[in-house]
Amino acid sequence: MLLTGSFHRALDDKLRFAIPKPLRDALGHPGEAVLYLAPGTDGSLALYPQNSFTKLTSRLEHGTSDGRDLVAFTRLFYAQVQRLEIDKQGRIRLPNELAELVGLSKEVVLLGVGDHLEIWDQKTWENYLERTQPHYDDLAVRALAGGTPAVFTSKLEAIP
Q: What is the pTM of this model?
């Protein structure tokens, strides 16, 4: 399953929003409707399908970072993770405490990020995009170092 794209959504009074059909299909809804919501990075929430969450927990169990950092992170992470289900209308309901943690307002952006989804407050996402998008080429080269596709290297060679 590959989760991609960005989708603007409005939260209702109960902090619910509909997951777009392409993402629901990729998540295996209605058959597999269990998701795990956790604090993400940069002011976002991370929404993991069961299989991605299982892989993440396995990585944490076999982590190579300093023991104290790993213990502190796993304590904070697991204490805040919440199990969610997609309802029959294709919606999820965000827990108040996690919505407040990242300052979600009425308008949110749902991002597909490969193996999981991210939920951002619309203004926070716009600010992040404004700061980060101008550095896309540099980020791509660093992220793909060693195996940089020709599309990126040819674009860089063309820069005066």
A: 0.85
